Amino acid sequence: MTVGIEQMTFYTPGFSLDMVELAKARGEEPEKYTIGIGQSQQSVLPNYEDVVTMGVNAAATLLKTVSTADIEMLLFGTESGVDNSKSAAIFAKNFLGLKDDIRAIEVKQACYGGTFALMQAKDFVSLHPDKKVLVIAADVARYGLHTPGEVTQGAGAVAMLISTDPKIAEINGDSVYMVQDEPDFWRPIDSDIALVDGHQSTDVYKDMFLSLWQRYKVQNQRSLSDFAGFAFHLPYTKMGKKALEQILPEVDEERQVALRKRLTESQYYNRLVGNLYTGSLYLSLLSLLDRSEELAAGDRIGLFSFGSGAEAELFSLTLTTGYQKVLSQQNVQEMLNKRRQLSLFEYETMFTSQLFDSSEDVRSEAPGQTGRCEFLGWQGHYRQYQYKK
Ligand code: HMG
Question: What pTM does this model have?
Answer without folding.
Answer: 0.98
